[in-house]
Amino acid sequence: MTGSGWCPCHHGELLQGAFRDRDGVLRAGLVTLPRPDLRVRARFEPGPEPVITVGPGHRPKATRAARLTVAALADRGAEWAGSGRGTAVAVPQRPGGGRVTLTGSVPFGLGMGSSTADVVATIRAVADGFGVRIAPREIARIAVAAEAASDPLMFDDPRPRLFAQRDGVVLEVLGESLPPLRIVGCLLDGGRPVDTPADAPPLPDPAAYAELRSRLRRAVSSADPTEVARVATASARLHRADSEIDRLLAAGEHALGVQVAHSGSVAGLLLRPDADPAPAVAALRAVGLPATGSFVVGELVAA
Fold this sequence. Notes:
Elements: E1 3-20, E2 26-47, E3 52-55, H1 60-83, E4 97-104, H2 114-129, H3 136-147, E5 161-164, E6 169-173, E7 181-187, H4 206-221, H5 225-239, H6 243-251, E8 257-260, E9 266-271, H7 278-286, E10 291-297
Parallel strand pairs: 3-4
Antiparallel strand pairs: 1-2, 2-4, 5-6, 7-9, 7-10, 8-9
Helix pairs in contact: 1-2, 1-3, 2-3, 4-5, 6-7
Pfam families: GHMP_kinases_N
Protein name: L-threonine kinase BluE
Keywords: Kinase, Transferase
């Protein structure tokens, strides 16, 4: 049957660096800044041929994700058939084919999770086509296998997560929701597209990131947007020290803070949710960074 799936994008990161897991293993990790108003949708139409394709255009990561999903469903079907649990859910016994069509408004290569949104929407659509709903943890495993590094966009609830993007595992759930923030976005580096490399870069010194992790956890728990913005600014400073970040920081002099994409050119000024974005837009324009739009994230926490 025809299947459908969707996935939102994000607006870069609030925090990214190197963090210890519960066993003390150092892993690359990130906390994304959600952008749920922009999303990718996928439609899967099974076909008689064993080949599965994804379009429009060349979508190699989503194509790998589609094929890995079909193979995972086939393996699951074989396990169920051999366990005597029957075939209440229609899972193919061998990999099948079809066509995935992606639609959406997520820009490519700017650090907004376009490839992960493609991948997650594709996984969901293919699984839905075979009558199966895949858990986020399994989607994360397939996504990392398909694209080497993945964003935590497969989780539908608003809880901010520290996510090991090259392992596909959640290192920590930091709280129930980010406090409300208004983001006025812009593009650094002239908006040049960036493709996340398959090879993992060297991990940075973890000491500073352990402190930022603790600070962000406390800020989320206390619903403190100012401290969230300070953590994001500190993470941005650790990530890059060049004229582009200097311009962003100059524009954000009267904002709560700034945030950047750690693999891409998207960035933003962080404001209180009820703030007028016009002064921030003017500040960005004054340093040569035209604003790309304004949106609000987070939820108010009852006292």
